[in-house]
Amino acid sequence: MTPPRQQHPEVLVVGAGPAGLSTAIGLARAGVRVLLVERHTGTSPFPKSTGVSTRTMEVLRAWGLEDRVRDGAMRVRTAVTVSRSLVEPERMSTPTAFPTDEQAGAASPTRPCFCAQDHLEPILLEHLVAVGGRVRFGTELAELRTHPGGVSAELLDRASGRRSRVHARYVVGADGPRSTVRPALGIGVTDLGTLGEFVAVTFRADLARRMPRTPSVINVVELPGAEGLLVPTSADDRWIYAGRSTGDLRDPREQLRLATGVPDLEPEILTVMPFTMGAHMADALRSRDGRGFLVGDAAHRTTPEGGIGMNTAMHAAHNLAWKLAWVLRGHAGEALLDSYSEERRPVGLANALRSLHPGTAVDPLALDLGVTYDSAVLAADAGQRAPHAWVRHAGRRISAVELFDGRMTVLAGHGGGHWRSAARELAADGLPIVGLSVGRDLHPVDATFAERYRLGDTGAVLVRPDGYLACRLDGSTRAASATLRAAVRRALGRDGAAATRVRAS
Fold it and tell me: pLDDT digit string (tens) for 276-285?
């Protein structure tokens, strides 16, 4: 039989959860030909994760999706409450790993959103298609091989049984904890531990009106025989109950009546799913031959504790996508791709380990917005997320964090016109970079901009397309062009020292 016509995306992404969708969106928005394949027939029909962090909302805001995501938001308290049963008075309440709206507003132009994953994923999918990404559902990865020029994959259409071949420059495994891409790339996985065997019951029931308070993000119940968590997953009384597995999953209704404290509850059972609450970490995030990458649960699986798994996955995807795009477009060197693992693996490992220790006190803003990267492409005094501060730019009041998507940006002080000119020289060579100076392009609304960016009069900062500081710039007007060119070369993995450090690691 003659095989179907071969397809030639630049990047093949396997898995259409939040990690895969976010990776594909980042690539497609940068003009990369991307094909996303998913073995299931559509996006997830299950609520799964319900907490979208401040940083994740910043990314969605940059993509123009913030309002649509908030349309599915639930009215919940940002807390973990403990009570004997759901409708009984709370015994105690503790903060979650998410900040309050007031806390978030001091550090970001947006705030967390509590909505279910089955609301978020279709929005991401629609946006991916709108920006040019190709998607094939019901398509399984049957075989994957890497070679010096890229990757070759055989795809199986699960409905028809037809097979097709795809060649791409790179492959991204976003296919979950039981990833098929990971072993095909020769990458192992380390089990970090488990909290036990659990069962998750998704159900609808007339509960919210019976509660003496607004439901919390997580509601812990302590009644003997029904201990577990109750998590609201929609505005129309859909919930998840997660409790220790008893081995009998046939009819959880009585368990739900005990846990909720409503003896006449008639729940509509939607799903009953056993799961192991555990964490693992891939031994690498990039294959030795450089052609494959891992994101999401394929890279680092967390327990549901703290609601950090999906957000960790989407942040990693955001980090990887722009780097792949810039290498494919010839703007960056291979060392930039190695920085993905350098920067994101420590974060994934820390979050996976943290999720194994329920109740650990965390600073929600530091956990989400305070991540600092360390890699060969970053200067020693950089690696932080560029701070939020309100400014006026091009006639609009926006946050400084909204200035960076899709390009390198030089932010300069009042007397930093030389940095602006140096950036213009690089832009003339075809590099996506812009120079913005205070007083000319940017007009800070208050003193927070000067405090947070510490530009001085003639200083500047170089900010990457993902909104992280690459370096601070200082020097004479005469040396500005050479200084900026050297800084950009390092930030894009074209610096010899950066490449040497990557090869030695």
Answer: 899 999 999 9
